[in-house]
Amino acid sequence: MSIKKLAGQTVYYGLSNIVSKLLNYFLTPFYLGILSRASFGEMSNVYAYIPFANIVLTYGMETAFFRFAKQENKSHVLGTSTISLLISTISITILLLLLRGPVINSYTGELAGLTGHPAFYTYIVLLMAFDALTAIPFAQLRLEGRPVRYAAIRVAGILTTIFFNIFFLVICPKLAAAGHQWVPGLHNGSDQTGYIYLSNMLGSAVTLVLFLPQIRQIEWKFDPALWKKMLHYALPLIIVGMAGMVNETFDRAWFLPQFLPGNNMEAKKEIIALYSANYKLAILITMFIQAFRLGAEPFFFKQAESRDPQKVYARIMKLFVVMLCFMFLFVSLYLNVWKIFLRVPFYYQGMRIVPVLLLANMFLGIYYNLTIWFKLTDRTKTGAIITLITAVLAFLLNYWWIPVMGYYGAALATMVCYFVQMVVCYVWGQRYYPIPYHLPKLITYIGLAVLTYYVFSWLNAKVLSPGDIYAMKPLSLAVATLLFGAYAWFIFRMEKKEFARMPFIGKYIK
């Protein structure tokens, strides 16, 4: 597969992923407008735990599928991995449903707003189960290079989720007010969050149904010897994933509730809501990272069989970092515009964490790119060690900083952890699988992007808009655009030859 084909596939994967993330973009201000602060905090807490459960439910089998499909009989790998996930998902789902009472009546259940609402818990468990069962079918489409079908199914599930959100939260209340007794009644915020979980569950269910024709074509044969090899490869990835989630979502799930001073449950829910709402503004970087991973992971495994793949990996990293820097500036320089997304003025006070989280996600994206070395060399245990180190660091930094700096401490801890994770992975990887990354350029591009933001931030606070740094003032927007254009001009001058080789845009560059 060429880099041009990778770019083409990433466009399709990116479109479906962008639609998915834009769903969160569009639904978040919708939720902020109808949910109380505490209810939004409860929902944010629930969705912070779901990635942990997804890691357990899939236990690295998706990555193992990519790895072994290139070495073994593909149909055997597909059948073995699918049967493994099917049995484990059903077993874990039954176990979670049996534990419903203790979970929803725990402190965590109360913080998540599940106490007294067992149906909400059931929706969440089924949502996670449906997502786990579609992991291998989605991976199969990626491996076979079928991004159009991948995007179509992904978008269909998303549109279903949107439809039911609108139906339950907008149409049903109007029908009930008009005297229609058959529609569900929404009496308070808790009812509303329950229907949000139900909408997401139905979207995941539709996705699974759309995969049924593909699933029926699987050769249902289980190879125990192959399964043991796949499991040996995949199990360390659980530690990698779980420890990674400690950095990525545990701030909302556990660190903030535990380390914020005081015992006021409602106040903690509101702070989680404030932090989570502003966290969403970093989504433009995360959506690109996810789209890149979807297209790049199978590409990297295939490219490993070619001659001198390290040079290709280095080139991709450089282009990847350039895009991350542009996205960092696109959001951070225009926060006075992006605040419209938050709708409610209460959430504006949290916008100071957005540049920190954007930078954190830049480091995370680079780390994901770097991890190819231990996946190609079958040293997945190394990845587990790296993420365990940063998970411990995350615990220590959040324990130290949240009581002192509040939610800003959680954002700062996230950034530091991702930076350390990135550096350790790079240094370790160069020992076992050296890749000639353009390190001086990468450091220059990232450093200049951060410097550009801080120059603008200083000018905005001291000269352009000292009374309200997030005010929508023409002069602030003009200076932000001027600085963005200057950065783009510098990058273009440095990488003109590289851009000329790119698909789509290359033909316009002379």
Task: Describe the overall structure.
The protein is mainly alpha-helical and 510 residues long. The protein folds into 2 domains: 27-252, no CATH class; 260-377 and 436-509, no CATH class. Helix content is 80%, strand content 0%. Helix 7 (118-133) packs parallel to helix 10 and helix 16 packs antiparallel against helix 23. The longest helix has 32 residues, at 3-34. It is globular. The protein starts with a helix and ends in a 10-residue tail after the last helix.
Tell me the layout of helices and strands.
Blueprint: H1 3-34, H2 37-58, H3 61-69, H4 74-98, H5 100-104, H6 107-111, H7 118-133, H8 135-143, H9 147-177, H10 189-210, H11 212-216, H12 224-248, H13 250-259, H14 265-279, H15 283-303, H16 309-332, H17 335-338, H18 354-370, H19 372-376, H20 380-405, H21 407-432, H22 439-464, H23 474-494, H24 496-500
Helix pairs in contact: 1-9, 1-15, 2-7, 2-12, 2-13, 2-14, 3-4, 3-8, 3-12, 4-7, 4-12, 7-10, 9-10, 12-20, 13-20, 15-16, 15-18, 16-18, 16-22, 16-23, 18-21, 20-21, 22-23
Short description:
With 510 residues, this protein is mostly helical.
Tag the structure with descriptive keywords.
24 helices; mainly alpha; 510 residues; 80% helix
SSE-based structural type: mainly alpha
Helix content: over 70%
Main β-sheet: number of strands, strand sense, barrel status? Answer: none
Number of strands: 0
The rounded distance between the terminal residues' Cα atoms is 26 Å
What is the arithmetic mean of pLDDT?
Answer: 87
- The Cα radius of gyration reads 23 Å
| Helix-strand string | HHHHHHHHHHHHHHHHHHHHHHHH
Flag low-confidence runs: none
Q: What proportion strand?
A: under 5%
